[in-house]
Design goal:
3-stranded antiparallel sheet; elongated; 173 residues
């Protein structure tokens, strides 16, 4: 099963489309085409920075699980573990957390308390809890899935380049 906060995902996709339109406006319609690379980086810095943040916190976070493993995609890390290595932790009024053997406590970003997607999040937490409780106590050593934490990166990280170029331009005399 897979869960992502549907409201945050939809709002982020809509705002990414708006920011893409803002970038096109800044590049072609505001005051003509940029005359150099610095002007283009300045025109793209705000929309690209906002798009990068929206992709990181609104579009990519999710939690997936099946009969054997759980995968938590947070904004900067991806956590994977076998269901036999997962212990559920309660967090009073703020959703749930997972304790993964060898990694520690992981709070799934997409399953945190939401006023817009609360019922679906509660249902997903309940399904994940049942999957963890149904997991076999000990799996074969060969079939065991190790708990891992991987730094998340992708094509969307190139959207930071215009923002960094604008910072460099601002620091130049």
């Amino acid at each position: 099963m897979r869960y992502r906060n549907r409201f945050v995902f939809s709002a982020s996709v809509a705002l990414v489309a708006v920011m893409a339109a803002v970038a096109i406006y800044f590049l072609f319609f505001d005051s003509g085409a940029p005359r150099g690379a610095w002007e283009a980086s300045l025109a793209l810095s705000l929309p690209c920075g906002v798009i990068w943040v929206l992709i990181r916190i609104g579009i990519t976070p999710s939690v997936e699980w099946d009969d054997a493993e759980v995968k938590v995609c947070d904004p900067f890390f991806v956590y994977r573990a076998g269901l036999d290595k997962v212990r559920l932790l309660g967090r009073e009024g703020r959703g749930g957390a997972l304790e993964l053997d060898g990694i520690g406590v992981v709070v799934p970003w997409s399953m945190t308390r939401s006023i817009f997607d609360g019922r679906r999040a509660n249902r997903a937490r309940r399904d994940l809890r049942h999957a963890v409780l149904r997991a076999p106590e000990s799996m074969d050593a060969d079939a065991a899935i190790p708990a891992t934490r991987i730094l998340r990166y992708g094509w969307f990280d190139t959207l930071v380049i215009p923002l960094l170029a604008a910072f460099v331009w601002a620091l130049l005399p």
